[in-house]
Amino acid sequence: MPKNSEKWLRVIGIGEDGWEDLGADAKLLLYESQVVLGGERHLKMLPDDWKGKRISWTSPMRESVEKILSFRPDRFNNVKSGVPRKKQKERVTVTVLASGDPLCYGVATKLLRHLPIDEVLIKPALSTFSLICSRVGWSLPDIETLTLHGRPLEMLHPFVQPGAKLGVLSKDSTTPQKTAELLANRGFGRSEITVLEHLGGSKEKKFSGKADSWEHGGGADLNAMAIECIPDSRADVIPRIPGLPDEAFIHDGQLTKCETRAVVLSKLMPIVDQVLWDVGAGCGSVAIEWMRSHPRCMAVAIEKSKTRLKMIEQNAINLGVPLLKIVPGTLPDVLGNLTLPDAIFIGGGLSNFKQKDSSSLLDLCWKLLKPGGRLVAHAVTFETEQQLLSWHKKNGGDLTRLSISRADSIGKFNGWKPLRPVTQYSVTKEY
């Protein structure tokens, strides 16, 4: 393992006050570097007597990452970075400047997708979330953290729960006002919002207010929020666990009902950083609940109906997963746009699937499913049920008949109204 002094790439976290915040060791590392890359704000913090090459971040960031990797020394040729690299006659030491903790929604995370930690020295500053907690007296492990920088505001929705404490990185000066409106519209108008500008710097400022009476105008673009979610009598409480009420979704009747949906998600087993394909997604209820289970659960909703595609998009926004990937069309026509799945739910399309080689939609999905992946398919007709029975006979797995009845009025009395029974097939692919 190389010593710290031998590592060609350094990533240094820098605070609000820049150069003055850095320790002697960090300053020494910068003076040893021939190249420094950072945002315009970071580069302006460098002292006048630093004479190396300054490179500003470009958009998209991928281009800047490639630029950094082009300085990689020849002795690491045997390790693949996935990026073409120019030949280096001599070793060049590169330093990347980043705000706060570079591994907390920062650039170091992206760089380490291409490089082993043995090549990189990381010196973090305090993260914004640590500073938030220190200013409002919260314990860091007890809060939920998220960033809205470069992401839709609607991603806040799943985090809005009674009593939740949130540390949020804002996009810009308008984010606190928009957040207050979102909370008030959700029936969380009593929530306390504390805005912290220029955290950790000489210009640090703090102000607070209730969501439903927010009066603070635009402030600094560089801000973060501490939010304590407090519901009122109108609160729209939407839990993270599967089985949201059917009324939570815009639909045309073609949705997996809430009781059945909870069973489906238990079989699909949402796992962090894994991808679900929701095939014949309808209004997208299964894909949306998969993503709501954890911020890093990803899903693809595949649907051919233009009307239902619009429903999926609106449901994803309303329920806080606006990054749901929505793919118009059917399998196998859309395969070129998809990442291979860790789980697949087939809610529709079994009976209409046509292949020249007579293979079924189940055959195709099973072939594409990653090892260890879970496949769940539903049938409500005799024809699709027969497909599931045949596939089960050949490939094993579990068959379950789901029959649900709900109380309903019968004249002036009450009785049970059965929903259409569902045959569920589930199987896990071996590693």
Folded structure, characterized:
With 431 residues, the protein is α/β, with parallel strands linked by helices. 23% of the residues lie in helices and 23% in strands. It has eleven helices and 19 strands. The chain has a seven-stranded mixed sheet, with helices on both faces. The chain has a five-stranded parallel sheet with strand order 3-2-4-1-5. A five-stranded mixed sheet has the order 6-7-10-8-9, covered by helices on one side. Strand 17 and strand 18 form a beta hairpin. The protein is flat and about 85 Å long. The two termini are 32 Å apart.
Rounded to an integer in angstroms, the radius of gyration calculated over CA atoms is: 26 Å
Helix-strand makeup class = alpha/beta
Relative strand content: 15-25%
Shape, per Cα inertia axes: flat
Count of helical stretches = 11
Our count of domains comes out at 3
Question: What's the end-to-end separation, in Å?
Answer: 32 Å
Name the helicity range: 10-25%
Count all strands and give the number: 19
Low-confidence stretches: none
What name does CATH use for the topology of the largest domain?
Rossmann fold
Mean pLDDT: 90
Q: Give the biggest beta sheet.
A: 7 strands, mixed
CATH architecture of the largest domain: 3-Layer(aba) Sandwich
List keywords for this structure.
single chain, 431 residues, alpha/beta, Cobalt-precorrin-4 Transmethylase, domain 1, Methyltransferase, Cobalt-precorrin-4 Transmethylase, Domain 2, Rossmann fold, 3 domains, seven-stranded mixed beta sheet, five-stranded parallel beta sheet, 11 helices, 19 strands, flat
